[in-house]
């Protein structure tokens, strides 16, 4: 019986991590539904970008208030995880404060965690107020209605609860140490420093040792179970960015933002057209692969980095708030492009799961069922969204791929753009001027 | 003004066995748009004054394909690109300067993958270089103390990280350079990019160029400087919409310089 808590803990841990592993597999399977793209170049620059942008948060602080608050929660998250390691080991081994022999280092660590926990609470409250009281514009755009709004708040509530549980656990522990409760006392005096949770003393000091143990154990268990639940919530939430921001910044675009990729399939066609040796009457090769589809109408036409982008998006809306089309009341919102891509990808993934590993046509696609043509045509390709993203997401590349599908597969460009393209084709300029008149300006006064 | 523009073409120079140092890529706007033609001429005047060895392709030039590509027509873009590349490679062109950020971006970034490798510079970079080499001297005076705000073209700024060259030129005019609320990396688009120039905007509350013009007007400028023929059109329309065309001029950086040099 004495090992019951250890066994229970191990079970909870196995279930929590097992379910998380299942989610990671599903995530990676879905991302791999995207087309292959070569991102093996420049690995040193890529590591640098990841260190600067994800680890160093350099693009977060472009907006100082949100940036500072985020850095607090981010540092809190990373550092407080050291404590989670101790909690897991204690749980498995049946020890209490396993790292306490570190002495003053341990005191320093626990004290730091407590201060960070308090700062995280303050930052989380500020974040909540920005979403719910101040109602910053980018948090109340149409695409945020429903689940995205709930999700955003849910994350804040969970973080708040976890921090309170952590402090309660420490506060009760401190009292137990003061009262000399068995299992809690340490030969070398008080283990840990409690700069924040000591203020819970008035609430706790009158409790009996038995009750304090109940408080401490309850907080301890809820805290670690909460963390495991939170870990498994990630896959269903925008909060997934805490993991994916790292690979996403690694695989982010390294080329000048203005450089859009040249479609290789088109290059081959164009070369063939320009080749005087090519035999126009040559019979087509029966074994020739089916011609590649131009552009994207569904998530599987996008490449896997674009799909990774979609899962990485944390819906902060910096892209949308910088978008000239969105600022002037158009339907286009780059954030919605990313959210739609993720939603559709999830739908495709579930379809595959429900049909034993193969996708069964569902009569839906990313274009029209999620992203409307009106949104796609409102883009000025100005790259403001790409610049604004703190984790190197590129909504513009998806918009462009979808425009390619509309124009090259469906000939469905707006009429005025068809005129423009007709002009380029016929007379080498977007306007109906004769190419032979191209130098007339020299003679005009 | 009397002095004739000297605009040699590649065909003429090639026939005479000469090779210019740089090709001036005029672009469609610079060739056909009445407002942009003035920018072209201003830049040519500076090139002539600085005795730069250059030529244009003239009737052999064709759209780079930028608006087609941004509209999604990769096929048309690549057809344009390979045709232009064939012409340019035929003349053995090494260096290209252009006053259009869209041509600049496409030639610089998207042509190499299709066989067109050139050193491509924007005219504001080229002018900065002329200034450094002492080939042009900007004796302020005319614009001294004038409030000038500079609008970053997306395809020059964010797309290619050229923020300083045009600003340096404006500062050299002894003008007071004032920045808009959104500038440099966070510059707001004029509304013309991504082939929007050639269509009506989607339904919304406002046109993008009006929003941007309002940001420009907030700086109380005497001149709005641009470095792109399309931005120029959009900002000029915006200023007219606000009925400020009498007091605020929209000018290309090249025009400012040509003006100061009394060309």
Automatic annotation (TrEMBL), chain A:
<feature type="domain" description="4Fe-4S ferredoxin-type">
    <location>
        <begin position="304"/>
        <end position="335"/>
    </location>
</feature>
<feature type="transmembrane region" description="Helical">
    <location>
        <begin position="218"/>
        <end position="236"/>
    </location>
</feature>
<keyword id="KW-0560">Oxidoreductase</keyword>
<dbReference type="InterPro" id="IPR017900">
    <property type="entry name" value="4Fe4S_Fe_S_CS"/>
</dbReference>
<dbReference type="InterPro" id="IPR036197">
    <property type="entry name" value="NarG-like_sf"/>
</dbReference>
<protein>
    <submittedName>
        <fullName>(Fe-S)-binding protein</fullName>
    </submittedName>
</protein>
<feature type="transmembrane region" description="Helical">
    <location>
        <begin position="108"/>
        <end position="129"/>
    </location>
</feature>
<feature type="domain" description="4Fe-4S ferredoxin-type">
    <location>
        <begin position="369"/>
        <end position="401"/>
    </location>
</feature>
<dbReference type="GO" id="GO:0051539">
    <property type="term" value="F:4 iron, 4 sulfur cluster binding"/>
</dbReference>
<keyword id="KW-1133">Transmembrane helix</keyword>
<feature type="transmembrane region" description="Helical">
    <location>
        <begin position="6"/>
        <end position="24"/>
    </location>
</feature>
<keyword id="KW-0812">Transmembrane</keyword>
<dbReference type="GO" id="GO:0005886">
    <property type="term" value="C:plasma membrane"/>
</dbReference>
<keyword id="KW-0004">4Fe-4S</keyword>
<dbReference type="InterPro" id="IPR017896">
    <property type="entry name" value="4Fe4S_Fe-S-bd"/>
</dbReference>
<dbReference type="GO" id="GO:0016491">
    <property type="term" value="F:oxidoreductase activity"/>
</dbReference>
<dbReference type="GO" id="GO:0046872">
    <property type="term" value="F:metal ion binding"/>
</dbReference>
<feature type="transmembrane region" description="Helical">
    <location>
        <begin position="154"/>
        <end position="172"/>
    </location>
</feature>
<dbReference type="Pfam" id="PF13187">
    <property type="entry name" value="Fer4_9"/>
</dbReference>
<dbReference type="InterPro" id="IPR051460">
    <property type="entry name" value="HdrC_iron-sulfur_subunit"/>
</dbReference>
<keyword id="KW-0479">Metal-binding</keyword>
<keyword id="KW-0472">Membrane</keyword>
UniProtKB/TrEMBL annotation, chain B:
<keyword id="KW-0560">Oxidoreductase</keyword>
<dbReference type="GO" id="GO:0016491">
    <property type="term" value="F:oxidoreductase activity"/>
</dbReference>
<feature type="domain" description="Cysteine-rich">
    <location>
        <begin position="148"/>
        <end position="235"/>
    </location>
</feature>
<dbReference type="InterPro" id="IPR004017">
    <property type="entry name" value="Cys_rich_dom"/>
</dbReference>
<keyword id="KW-0479">Metal-binding</keyword>
<dbReference type="GO" id="GO:0051539">
    <property type="term" value="F:4 iron, 4 sulfur cluster binding"/>
</dbReference>
<dbReference type="InterPro" id="IPR051460">
    <property type="entry name" value="HdrC_iron-sulfur_subunit"/>
</dbReference>
<dbReference type="GO" id="GO:0005886">
    <property type="term" value="C:plasma membrane"/>
</dbReference>
<dbReference type="GO" id="GO:0046872">
    <property type="term" value="F:metal ion binding"/>
</dbReference>
<dbReference type="Pfam" id="PF02754">
    <property type="entry name" value="CCG"/>
</dbReference>
<keyword id="KW-0411">Iron-sulfur</keyword>
<feature type="domain" description="Cysteine-rich">
    <location>
        <begin position="22"/>
        <end position="108"/>
    </location>
</feature>
<protein>
    <submittedName>
        <fullName>(Fe-S)-binding protein</fullName>
    </submittedName>
</protein>
<keyword id="KW-0004">4Fe-4S</keyword>
<keyword id="KW-0408">Iron</keyword>
């Amino acid at each position: 019986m004495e090992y019951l808590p250890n066994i229970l803990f191990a079970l909870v841990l196995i279930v929590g991590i097992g379910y998380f592993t299942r989610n990671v597999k599903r995530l990676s399977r879905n991302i791999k539904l995207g087309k292959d793209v070569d991102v093996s170049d420049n690995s040193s620059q890529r590591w640098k970008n990841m260190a600067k942008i994800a680890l160093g948060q350099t693009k977060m602080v472009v907006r100082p208030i949100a940036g500072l608050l985020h850095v607090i929660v981010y540092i809190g998250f990373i550092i407080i995880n050291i404590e989670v390691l101790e909690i897991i080991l204690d749980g498995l081994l049946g020890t209490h404060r396993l790292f306490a022999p570190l002495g003053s280092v341990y005191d320093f660590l626990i004290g730091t965690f407590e201060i960070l926990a308090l700062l995280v609470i303050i930052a989380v409250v500020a974040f909540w107020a920005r979403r719910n009281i101040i109602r910053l514009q980018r948090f109340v755009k149409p695409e945020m209605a429903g689940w995205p709004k709930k999700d955003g708040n849910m994350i804040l509530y969970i973080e708040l609860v976890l921090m309170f549980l952590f402090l309660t656990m420490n506060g009760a522990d401190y009292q137990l140490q003061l009262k000399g409760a068995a299992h809690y006392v340490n030969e070398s005096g008080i283990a840990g420093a409690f700069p924040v949770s000591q203020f819970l003393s008035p609430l706790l000091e009158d409790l009996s040792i038995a009750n304090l143990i109940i408080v401490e154990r309850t907080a301890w268990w809820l805290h670690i179970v909460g963390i495991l639940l939170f870990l498994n919530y990630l896959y269903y939430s925008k909060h997934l960015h805490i993991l994916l921001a790292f690979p996403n910044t690694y695989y982010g675009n390294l080329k000048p933002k203005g450089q859009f990729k040249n479609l290789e399939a088109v290059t081959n066609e164009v070369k063939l057209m320009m080749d005087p040796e090519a035999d126009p009457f040559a019979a087509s090769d029966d074994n020739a692969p089916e011609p590649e589809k131009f552009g994207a109408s569904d998530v599987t036409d996008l490449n896997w980095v674009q799909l990774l982008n979609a899962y990485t998006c944390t819906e902060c809306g910096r892209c949308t708030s910088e978008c000239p089309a969105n600022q002037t009341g158009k339907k286009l919102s780059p954030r919605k492009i990313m959210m739609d891509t993720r939603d559709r990808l999830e739908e495709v993934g579930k379809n595959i799961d429900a049909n034993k590993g193969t996708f069964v046509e569902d009569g839906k696609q990313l274009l029209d069922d999620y992203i409307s043509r009106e949104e796609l045509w409102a883009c000025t390709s100005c790259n403001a969204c790409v610049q604004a993203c703190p984790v190197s997401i590129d909504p513009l590349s998806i918009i462009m791929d979808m425009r390619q599908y509309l124009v090259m597969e469906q000939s469905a460009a707006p009429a005025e753009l068809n005129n423009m393209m007709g002009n380029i084709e016929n007379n080498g300029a977007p306007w109906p001027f004769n190419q032979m008149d191209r130098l007339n300006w020299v003679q005009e006064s | 003004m009397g002095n004739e523009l000297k605009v040699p073409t590649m065909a003429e120079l090639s026939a005479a066995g000469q090779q210019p140092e740089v090709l001036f890529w005029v672009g469609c706007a610079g060739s056909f748009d009445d407002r942009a033609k003035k920018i072209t001429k201003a830049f040519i005047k500076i090139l002539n004054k600085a005795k730069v060895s250059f030529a244009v392709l003239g009737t052999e030039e064709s759209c780079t394909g930028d608006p087609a590509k941004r509209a999604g027509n990769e096929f048309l873009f690549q057809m344009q690109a390979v045709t232009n590349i064939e012409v340019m490679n035929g003349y053995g062109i090494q260096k290209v300067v252009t006053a259009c950020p869209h041509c600049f971006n496409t030639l610089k970034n998207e042509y190499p993958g299709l066989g067109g490798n050139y050193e491509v510079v924007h005219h504001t970079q080229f002018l900065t270089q002329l200034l450094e080499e002492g080939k042009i001297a900007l004796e302020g005076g005319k614009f001294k103390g004038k409030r000038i705000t500079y609008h970053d073209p997306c395809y020059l700024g964010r797309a290619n990280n050229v923020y300083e060259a045009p600003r340096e030129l404006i500062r050299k005019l002894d003008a007071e350079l004032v920045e808009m609320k959104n500038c440099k990396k966070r510059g707001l688009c004029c509304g013309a990019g991504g082939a929007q120039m050639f269509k009506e905007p989607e339904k919304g509350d406002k046109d993008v160029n009006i929003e941007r013009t309002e940001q420009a007007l907030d700086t109380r400028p005497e001149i709005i400087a641009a470095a792109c023929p399309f931005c120029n059109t959009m900002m000029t329309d915006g200023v007219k919409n606000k009925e400020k065309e009498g007091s605020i001029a929209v000018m290309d950086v090249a025009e400012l310089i040509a003006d100061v040099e009394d060309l």
